[in-house]
Structure to design on (613 residues):
């Protein structure tokens, strides 16, 4: 029977072309949407890697009156002391602009043992940064006074996996194969999803902010106590205005920036799903119409099949099978295109994302086709053979 | 072979009731070649459909091949049609998207059996109707007479005991019609197949063993 159906489909390839291409296009669209959703979902399921609750960021722009390193150091030591003196502030760290959810990026990169490692997020932070963010250390240690003027680096777990696999990383010397500039790994920290809950952490490199760098640093992260309220925020704002003169200071709550960062992902995603949803509804109606029309065109054939020994249910089974066979052809063709994504490593996304999306798309298309052909199939089974044979 | 008792068929639509068959009693012996004649709309096709288990009578009982089929399920009826009956229609009812050989194999697809067996039986049936050289053609590439011969091959491929033919020569000129008639006669003679044929052609009817005339749903002769 299978061969018979195949022959029937093949001989009607011209009529079936529309059906085939309709399923092929929807398959590819569904695959794209599922790839995106799978990508986001898998990232979403990973731990955030730090605590954004009660973390405030202070951004200031200061027209430095002096470029003298010593006087700058004295100035910032003063800022630090004034802030630390506030009981509402539990921890603080100066940081480069690319702290989590900041929309600011700084990357570096190198080739390590022939493997391209870039891009690597390049964070420049202080000794208490990990405490402010509640980061989790997996191996070795975080920065402390020992690292003054040492080329120490803390890497995240993704970078560690990429460079060393399951081997320990602490103590290893890293850097570009062909360059002088080498760094010593002192610790490995858990991945921090700095781009929001739906994006991967990527590879990260944490360097110690040395005192000579205060010239260009413009951000402070604060971990505040549960008692820190709006009143405290305005007091803090005034204090900052006073101690960092001529500056535009801006205080942001990391929970807020996180939310807005997440909506940057979620809103386009919802639009995408809605558009795809409409497309699928259209395709479903189209399939339904094609199948319905098909059956009205084939009443004679259906009547004949009944006369020569087909039951009503075998007629409807045949029609559903034909649709599924056609869907299978489209899926095979579509999978060929879809598989190019993991094979060519497009967008640098894990192959598993594409494979899961592919399987979901296949299941979805089959369900769609079954859904659209069940009712026409049932109608076909109800066609009275004597009546159908009498027409024409 | 076929025994119809007090068969009545009423078609009901929203507005009218048509009494298509009215109190038909008919006994058809094994190996008989029977023809049915009558004016258009007198119920010939309806009667044939009832014998062919494609339509249920409103009243009366049917025995075919010594089986009372009154209580048969949809599945049993389908199996019965497949194994015991062969159909030939005025408009052939071939599937235009299948080659001649595949059209002839069709009834065998609803039985068990290997593809090779099906091929052999279909080739044999096509040889019987003299179409061995057309097996790869599509129905649209054949003449009307050739198409009807394909339909006959399809009707006999499963070696049924009974063939029901509804105006098999209705669409053909007399030369082609005679050809078809000769095939049916030889099937009846050589294989002992029981044949019931509806026709409008007196000449064809006279070549059969017995003629039944219908008028307004009743038997008049
Ligand atoms: N499905 C149906 N619904 C309602 N009435 C029907 C149906 N099929 C047939 N009839 C009616 O039953 C009567 C007998 O029809 P039937 O087709 O048996 O005639 P026939 O003798 O085969 O005519 P013809 O020689 O034109 O083929 C007609 O009056 C027809 O209108
Ligand atoms: Mg008729």
């Amino acid at each position: 029977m299978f061969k018979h159906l195949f022959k029937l489909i093949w001989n009607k390839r011209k009529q079936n072309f529309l059906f085939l291409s309709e399923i092929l296009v929807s398959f590819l669209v569904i695959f794209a949407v599922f790839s995106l959703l799978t990508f986001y979902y898998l990232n979403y399921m990973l731990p955030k890697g730090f605590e954004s609750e009660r973390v405030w960021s202070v951004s200031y722009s200061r027209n430095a009156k002096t470029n003298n390193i010593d006087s700058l150091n004295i100035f910032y030591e003063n800022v630090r002391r004034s802030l630390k003196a506030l009981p509402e502030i539990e921890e603080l760290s100066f940081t480069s602009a690319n702290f989590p959810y900041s929309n600011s990026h700084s990357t570096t990169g190198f080739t390590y043992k022939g493997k391209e490692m870039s891009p690597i997020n390049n964070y420049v932070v202080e000794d208490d940064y990990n405490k402010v963010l509640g980061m989790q250390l997996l191996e070795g240690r975080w920065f402390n006074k020992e690292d003054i003027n040492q080329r120490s680096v803390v890497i995240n777990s993704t970078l560690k996996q990429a460079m060393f696999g399951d081997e320990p990383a602490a103590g290893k010397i890293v850097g570009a194969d062909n360059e002088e500039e080498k760094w010593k790994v002192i610790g490995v920290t858990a991945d921090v999803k700095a781009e929001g809950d739906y994006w991967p952490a990527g590879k990260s490199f944490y360097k110690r902010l040395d005192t000579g760098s205060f010239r260009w640093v413009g951000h402070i992260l604060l971990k505040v106590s549960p008692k820190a309220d709006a009143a405290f925020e305005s007091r803090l704002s005034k204090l900052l205005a006073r101690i960092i003169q001529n500056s535009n200071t801006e205080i942001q709550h990391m929970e807020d920036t996180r939310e807005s960062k997440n909506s940057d992902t979620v809103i386009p995603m919802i639009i995408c799903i809605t558009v795809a949803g409409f497309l699928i509804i259209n395709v479903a109606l189209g399939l339904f119409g094609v199948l319905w029309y098909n059956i009205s065109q084939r009443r004679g054939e259906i009547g004949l099949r009944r006369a020569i020994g087909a039951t009503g249910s075998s007629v409807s089974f045949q029609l559903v099978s034909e649709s599924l066979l056609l869907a299978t052809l489209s899926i095979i063709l579509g999978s060929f295109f879809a598989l190019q994504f993991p094979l060519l490593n497009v967008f640098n996304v894990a192959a598993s994302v594409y494979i899961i999306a592919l399987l979901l798309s296949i299941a979805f298309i089959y369900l769609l086709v079954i859904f659209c052909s069940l009712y026409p199939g049932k109608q076909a089974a109800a066609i009275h053979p004597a009546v159908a044979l009498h027409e024409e | 072979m076929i025994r119809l008792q007090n068969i009545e068929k009423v078609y009901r639509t929203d507005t009218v009731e048509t009494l298509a068959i009215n109190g038909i009693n008919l006994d058809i012996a094994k190996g008989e070649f029977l023809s049915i004649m009558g004016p258009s709309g007198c119920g010939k096709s309806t009667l044939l459909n009832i014998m062919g288990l494609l339509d249920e009578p409103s009243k009366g009982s049917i025995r075919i091949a010594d089986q009372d089929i009154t209580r048969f399920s949809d599945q049993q009826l389908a199996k019965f049609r497949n194994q015991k009956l062969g159909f030939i229609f005025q408009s052939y009812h071939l599937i235009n998207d299948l080659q001649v050989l595949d059209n002839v194999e069709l009834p065998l697809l609803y039985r068990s059996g290997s593809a090779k067996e099906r091929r052999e039986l279909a080739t044999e049936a096509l040889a019987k109707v003299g179409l061995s050289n057309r097996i790869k053609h599509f129905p649209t590439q054949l003449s009307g007479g050739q198409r009807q011969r394909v339909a006959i091959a399809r009707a006999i491929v499963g070696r049924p005991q009974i063939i029901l033919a509804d105006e098999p020569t209705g669409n053909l000129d007399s030369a082609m019609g005679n050809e078809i008639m000769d095939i049916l006669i030889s099937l009846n003679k050589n294989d002992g197949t029981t044949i019931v044929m509806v026709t409008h052609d007196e000449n064809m009817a006279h070549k059969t063993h017995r003629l039944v005339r219908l008028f307004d749903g009743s038997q008049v002769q």
In short: Chain B touches chain A at residues 45-46, 49, 52, 54-55, 74-75, 78-79, 81-83, 87, 89, 91, 93, 95, 97-99, 102, 105-107, 109-111, 115, 138, 154, 158 (CB under 8 Å).
